[in-house]
Amino acid sequence: MNNHKLLQTVNELMAGDKGLLAMDESNPTCNARFKQYGIDATEENRRAYRELLISTRGLKEYISGAILYDETIRQVTLEGSPMARAVTAAGIIPGIKVDTGAKAMAGQAGEKITEGLDNLRERLEEYSSMGARFAKWRMVITIGKNRPTLVCIEENTSALARYTMLCQEAGLVPIVEPEVMMDGDHSIEDCSRVTGLVLREVFHKLNGQGALLEGLILKPNMILPGLNNSNQNSVDEVAAATMSCLLRNVPAAVGGIAFLSGGQSANLASHRLNAICTINREKGIWPLTFSFSRALQLEALEIWSGKESKTLDAQNKLFESTRRNSLARSGHFSNTY
Question: Which residues have CB under 8 Å from 223's CB, separation 6+?
Fold first, then answer.
């Protein structure tokens, strides 16, 4: 394990007020988003869209790393450059999603297990040779009647820890993403309790396998009520609950924390990030940032809608979205910026 290499990458990813662009949607997910805007679900359109994102002028001012999907890292730009090389040339660190998705968990109704450990060591070596410097693995936990079960948490965190060790062995920084979903009518207290339980088990497994905590980045959910809960807590309440949960359950040694946006609207995700980072400046012990997908991309995707003539307008919107969240990371975001 090359500790120096891992720490260097973590420091670069968490530097300044930059964040991570999660552009690693699976083909079915990407196609579903395309369908909303009348875009044909073709490999060429997916390539064109991903190239639009990474070629946005000035993106490196606010984005330190971009998470790619397997199809994307194997594609080349119109000018013939491998996609990871194009990301690097744009001044951004390329990363790669390595799990193969959350599938229905046998014997556990309504719960999922993330797959992708088969041949992972070999795949990591290949991705590294393509230019990737970090990776991502997402586990999914749902809150509901009799959920989550302990067996679901146990199996998912075990897989997450194995992924982490394989990444660090290969010299790739692991993004550790234990997502507690927003779906449901649970309260913010329910979310905090379950997220705390999951985080404790994640780090129990990581410590048990000897992971270098300084050489990984945690990608957690914010502490939120379920989307169907009639009591949608204020931005400040969400920020306080999120920081409390992290301080109670995440070791100080962790190299950084990059929040996912989940199903939040772009504006609300930025406001919540701003409030969390404001508290972190006084009470926190880690660098915090964002690793958003929909909250950065959807407005740009809507503008583009598969039309080459709209590329620059879409890129301008993406640039604006990344700047907004950079300001939120520093605690300086407002609707009037």
Answer: 188, 191, 192, 195, 238, 241, 242, 244, 245
The CATH number of the structural domain formed by 3-329 is: 3.20.20.70
Residue 307 annotated among the catalytic residues of the structure: no
Q: How far apart are CA 131 and CA 323, in angstroms?
A: 26
Say if residue 248 is exposed, middle or buried (CB neighbours under 10 Å; 0-12, 13-18, 19+): exposed
* Catalytic-role residue among 25, 177, 179, 201: 177
The reported pLDDT for the residue numbered 283 is 85
Residue 220 CA to residue 35 CA, distance in Å, equals 28
Domain boundaries along the sequence of the chain:
3-329
Q: Does residue 63 contact residue 20 with C-beta atoms inside 8 Å?
A: yes
134 and 13 Cβ atoms separated by less than 8 Å:
yes
Q: Which position among 18, 205, 219, 317 bears the catalytic label?
A: 219
Calculate what percentage of the chain has a pLDDT beyond 70.
Answer: 99
pLDDT (tens digit per residue) in 211-225: 999 999 999 999 999
237 is catalytic: no
Checking phi first, is residue 309 left (phi over 0); if not, alpha (psi -120 to 50) or beta? Answer: alpha
pLDDT tens, residue by residue, 268-305: 999 999 999 999 988 889 999 999 999 999 999 999 99
- CB of 150 within 8 A of CB of 189? no
